[in-house]
Amino acid sequence: MKIRKAAVTELFYPSSPAVLSGVVETCLKNGVSPKQPIPSTRAWPKAVIAPHAGFSYSGAIAGSAFKTLAAGRKTIRRVVMLGPAHRVYVTGLAASSADFFETPLGLVPVDKTAMEKLVAFPQVHIFDEAHAPEHSLETHLPFLQLALDEFSIVPLIVGESSLQEVAQVLDALWDGDETLIAVSSDLSHFHSYEAARELDQSTARAIETLRPQDIRFEHACGRVAINGLLTVCPKYNLGATTLDLRNSGDTCGQRDRVVGYGAWAFYEKQ
Question: Exposed, middle or buried: residue 109 (CB in 10 Å: 0-12, 13-18, 19+)?
């Protein structure tokens, strides 16, 4: 049994299972509900975008995204996770050979059948060295562990790749109500508070209007995965709603140099 060990406990979130559960439960409970819900064929989204910073910084915003899964708790059985690479350079999409991903809340199984299917694509390759230190997926796992019942994951780190290559992977794994897409991304980095708000509001508009061409390098570290998702939304009749949009100056930091965070849910429209 091969386990991808938790790498960022105490750096990004508590290592104590009890403390971690309490923090995540509070984030989920206090998550913001959609102000203008999209009329949908079901009560939970097909996809979410959530941030991946330390929980004291972005946990409340992530809670808004994962809170929307409550009605699908027993239905969702697989989560396709896409996040950017921060520590190891990645070309294409990096898959994992692990059988499980670990957090203080336990082990999450990897969908090995899906992984075998994906590595047939030229842009997808097994690259465990990229997963080992990466926090963009790991920080989502505790939220998923408390928001869902039993589920497996398809963990993918998105590096230098085209949005069409990401869209092809999403198409291959789309399936039905049992599959959720979870994209991990922070927004603008290290601008003044007001400049960050302006940039992040621009990103929110691009997501809500499904315009990947409007999201560039300075808008989001996970822009490639976000743009891949936006590319397939029209095909699957998905609409996006902004749940929460703040930055570290609002949550846990100074306002002279902030990082932006946002949460979105994508629903199948009626």
Answer: middle
In degrees and rounded to multiples of 5, residue 78 shows phi and psi of -150, 135
Phi and psi dihedrals of 80, rounded to 5? -85, 110
For helices 163-173 and 223-232, angle between their N-to-C axes, nearest 10 degrees:
60
Domain that holds residue 158: 3-268
Q: Are 225 and 214 in contact (CB under 8 A)?
A: no
Q: Rounded to whole angstroms, how far apart are CA atoms 217 and 199?
A: 11
Provide, for the chain, the percentages of residues in helix, strand and coil under a 3-state DSSP scheme, each rounded to the nearest 5.
Answer: 35, 25, 40
- Residue 37's pLDDT band (cuts 50, 70, 90): low
The stretches of the chain forming alpha helices (DSSP H) are 17-29, 55-67, 112-118, 128-131, 141-147, 163-173, 193-208, 223-232, 248-251
CA distance 113 to 101: 16
Q: Are 104 and 20 in contact (CB under 8 A)?
A: yes
Query: Band of the pLDDT at 36, cuts 50, 70, 90?
Result: low
Question: What would the pLDDT profile of 14-29 be if each residue is shown by its tens digit?
Answer: 999 999 999 999 999 9
pTM: 0.96
Compute the radius of gyration of the chain from its Cα atoms: 17
Q: Mean per-residue pLDDT for 212-238?
A: 96
Average pLDDT of span 167-175: 97
264: helix, coil or strand? Answer: strand
Which CATH number goes with the domain that contains 112? Answer: 3.40.830.10
How many separate domains does the chain show? 1
Output the pLDDT for position 192: 95
